[in-house]
Design goal:
Blueprint lengths: L5 E7 L7 H11 L6 E7 L1 H4 L6 H17 L7 E5 L5 H10 L4 H5 L2 H9 L6 H16 L4 E3 L5 H18 L7 E3 L34 H9 L16 H14 L3 H7 L5 H28 L1 H30 L7
Parallel strand pairs: 1-2, 2-3, 4-5
Bound molecules: adenosine-5'-triphosphate and L-tryptophanamide.
């Protein structure tokens, strides 16, 4: 709770271009919360450097991501959209929380295991303590709800454990957050290997639909999507390729799985792939147009960055002051 309103935090890393999984699993849901919650959406650039980044590229991608948040429909007057690195309380709380987190807990994180395997030449301490910084992000804003894709569930659990442990020692300092995982689109799979999640770091360009892909590219990628050979549009565990396409269609159109199966009962894969491609490209078109407009308006984006960064810092520092007091750090002399 913040100022008597329920509060919400989420973020995305400024690495790579956003894909359809990021949009359907997270961003698309974000725009539905602005009336009911006090919302904070961060570009988590501090998390991004757990993997080596080119400085100029990182700066560019962070700005593109922040602009895309707005293009996707987040109104920056109602949602606090800001860079994590502009609010030093993230790093400060992260240090405190790291003293309340066990090595054994961090060792169990599947994202850490996956990333460590992928970047065996750079298994840095930041990659290991990534979930502690994420807990700090969430707890700084006394978040009630955290909307994410299902791959982040484990990170939400450790956040709740850290917060509960802290509260048990120091009293009610942190709100214990709940994950919000949408029904449709929570786990979009790769178009080329439908048993793996669609991921920014996939090297095969045909595996993901990027939010900036043009209609022809989108249709081409769907046409090439890996499916089985029985040509029947039916949702089933043993048909991961076609089930993923149904999931996408359902998340985009708002229809149910049953309605979709019925609609395409007498169609083949070719027609269905075309329909999915068209639904995705018409969903993305207005976002792409808005992005192109916003990207030209440097002054407006700069203003959002400055004002929202200050607003985020105000709330974050409030929590940080409380934490510092509770753990016994001496008060500053003014
Ligand atoms: P990478 O795969 O390179 O680690 P990512 O694609 O998972 O990156 P993140 O910035 O880590 O991207 O995720 C941003 C948000 O998108 C998170 O809420 C995450 O749960 C969600 N998300 C990521 N991939 C998918 C997916 N395939 N389906 C649904 N949601 C997803
Ligand atoms: N770990 C998340 C990104 C992230 C996040 C957060 C999401 C960092 N801090 C706080 C929700 C709340 C990811 O990799 N998708």
């Amino acid at each position: 709770m913040l100022d008597g309103k329920k509060s919400l935090f989420s973020g995305m890393q400024a690495t790579g271009t956003l894909h359809l999984g990021n949009y359907l699993g997270a961003l698309k849901n974000w725009v539905t919360f602005e009336e009911e919650y006090q919302c904070f959406y961060s570009v988590v650039d501090m998390h991004s450097i757990t993997v080596r980044q080119n400085p100029a590229e990182l700066r560019k991608k962070a700005r593109a991501l922040l602009t895309l948040y707005i293009a996707a429909g987040l109104n920056p007057e109602k949602n606090c959209i800001y860079y994590q690195s502009h609010v030093s309380a993230h790093a400060e709380l992260s240090w405190v929380l790291s003293c309340f987190t066990y090595m054994g807990e961090l060792n169990r994180m599947t994202q850490y295991k996956d990333k460590a395997a992928k970047h065996a030449d750079n298994i840095n301490a930041g990659l290991f303590t990534y979930p502690v910084l994420m807990a700090a992000d969430i707890l700084l804003f006394q978040s009630d709800v955290v909307p994410v894709g299902s791959d982040q569930k484990q990170h939400l659990e450790i956040t709740r454990d850290i917060a509960t442990r802290f509260n048990n020692i120091y009293g009610d300092v942190f709100t214990i957050p709940e994950p919000y995982i949408g029904k449709a689109g929570a786990r979009i799979m790769s178009l080329q290997e439908p048993t793996k999640k669609m991921s920014k770091s996939d090297e095969n360009p045909n595996a993901s639909i990027n939010l900036m892909d043009d209609p022809d590219t989108i249709i081409r990628k769907f046409k090439r999507a890996v499916t089985d050979s029985d040509n029947e549009i039916r949702y089933s565990e043993d048909k991961p390729g076609i089930s993923n396409l149904i999931d996408i269609y359902v998340a985009v159109t708002g229809k149910t799985i049953e309605e979709t199966e019925k609609e395409f009962a007498s169609s083949g894969y070719g027609d269905f792939k075309m329909a999915v491609g068209e639904s995705v490209s018409s969903m993305l078109k207005p976002i792409q147009d808005r992005y192109a407009e916003l990207a030209k308006d440097k002054a407006y984006i700069d203003k959002v960055i400055k004002e929202n960064g200050e607003k985020a810092a105000y709330y974050a520092n409030k929590t940080l002051r409380k934490v510092y007091k509770k753990i016994g750090f001496p008060q500053k002399i003014r």
